[in-house]
Automatic annotation (TrEMBL):
Keywords: Cell membrane, Membrane, Transmembrane, Transmembrane helix, Transport. Its main location: membrane. It is a multi-pass membrane protein. It is found in: Cell membrane. GO terms for molecular function: dipeptide transmembrane transporter activity. Residues 95-326 form the ABC transmembrane type-1 domain. The keyword Acetylation does not apply. It comes from Glutamicibacter uratoxydans. Belongs to the binding-protein-dependent transport system permease family. This is ABC transporter permease. The keyword Transmembrane helix applies. SUPFAM superfamilies: MetI-like (SSF161098).
């Protein structure tokens, strides 16, 4: 068990290092001068050269990378020249909004995937199974930003069921006292129930849109696992002991299938926290995604590098935790298990 954890920790550290190198080099081979983009077209060449030197872009790549990683290990993610603030403060301001949105999206994705896949497999109905596969195929092939625009037109503009791109709260409402950074949670802790429901009201539609892609993947994965588990020997033994259909499915098939959801769901959670770029932009959500979109347009290296590094760390940490939990609950996944 310990050797398995140590091996995966080593792989995780190597993955983070590789991601940092990849992000660093990728941003510097992209055409365009970030110093010119930040300084503006009206800036003089001397001003641009001074800014380029201040950003460290006049040094070779090895020196730039060494300075960047040295700063990262001291907790300094750099300075955002496009906003005039530190990247640490930007992430601190934006990350809670993305976490709140991502957590609800994961709940939607896993909940609906487990529900509809279970209904399709339990009913053993051909039309229910076909409907699930069709819905998941459509979900996987639909661009999230297009669905977000369509949802805004229908549910916000046409019917007014959900708010438009207002951000996290309705205009005029004061955010709750900052405890966790999650408006719905902070409003609940402050006892402000109307504000909590307003925050949740703004969360539902973008979270539902973001969850569509993960739902498609997880529903197919869970359906496949349930169908294969039905043919396992222990399920046949349970039926031979006189158990009816529902207890067999509820006690033996469904829990076994959930083991496949754990690692996949954990990776999707990390992906949702950093991959909701266009959806956040459409909904005016002040999170990591919209911040990254603005930083890419303005060629703000420090912000984009920090987000890519954060994505890598999230992937690795969440994946490592999922592996440890899965190894604990399912001994068959351990190295050397027979």
């Amino acid at each position: 068990m310990l050797s398995t954890i140590l091996r995966r920790v080593g792989i995780s550290l190597a993955t983070i290092f590789g991601a940092s190198v990849f992000a660093f080099i990728l941003l510097r081979v992209v055409p365009g001068d970030p110093a010119r983009a930040i300084a503006g077209d009206m800036a003089t060449e001397d001003a641009v050269a001074a800014l380029r030197a201040d950003m460290g872009l006049d040094q070779n790549l090895f020196v730039q990378y060494w300075r960047y990683m040295r700063a990262v290990f001291t907790g300094d993610l750099g300075f955002s020249y496009s906003t005039g603030g530190t990247v640490n403060s930007l992430l601190g301001d934006r990350l809670p909004a993305t976490i709140e949105l991502g957590v609800l999206a994961v709940i939607f994705a896993i909940g609906t995937a487990v529900l509809f896949a279970s209904l399709a497999v339990y009913s053993n109905s051909r039309w229910a199974d076909r409907l699930l596969r069709t819905a998941s195929s459509l979900a996987m092939g639909s661009p999230p930003f297009w669905i977000a625009l369509l949802a805004l037109m229908v549910f916000a503009v046409q019917f007014g069921v959900f708010p438009g791109p207002e951000g996290r709260l309705s205009p005029g409402l004061v955010p709750p006292a900052d405890i966790t950074g999650l408006y719905s949670v902070d409003a609940l802790l402050a006892g402000n129930i109307p504000l909590m429901f307003n925050a949740l009201w703004h969360l539902v539609l973008p979270a539902a849109i973001i969850s569509i892609g993960p739902f498609a993947f997880l529903s197919r994965l869970y359906r496949s696992q349930l169908r294969s588990t039905r043919r396992e020997t222990f399920v046949m033994v349970a039926r031979s002991h006189g158990l009816t259909k529902f207890p067999v499915f509820n006690r033996h098939i469904a829990p076994h299938g959930l083991l496949s959801i754990l690692p996949a769901g954990s990776l999707l959670f990390a992906d949702l926290l950093t991959g909701s770029l266009l959806v956040e932009k459409v909904f005016g959500w002040p999170g990591i995604g919209s911040m990254t979109a603005d930083a890419i347009i303005q060629k703000d290296f420090a912000v984009v590098q920090a987000v890519l590094l954060l994505a890598a760390v999230l992937y690795v940490v969440v994946s490592l935790l999922a592996d440890v939990i899965l190894t604990t609950v399912d001994p068959r996944t351990r190295v050397g298990a027979r």
